[in-house]
Amino acid sequence: MQKIAFALLYSIVYIYKKLEITPMKKLLFIALGLAIVSCNKQEGSSSLKTAFVDTEKLMKEHQQAIDIENKYKVKSEEMGRELETEAKQFQADYESALRQAQAKGPQWAQQKAAELQQREQKLNIKQQSMFKEIQDASNGELDSLVSEIKLYIKDYGKKNNYDYVYGTGLTTPSILYAKDSYDITNELVKALNDKYKPAEGSKVADKEEVKK
Question: Global pTM?
Answer without folding.
Answer: 0.64
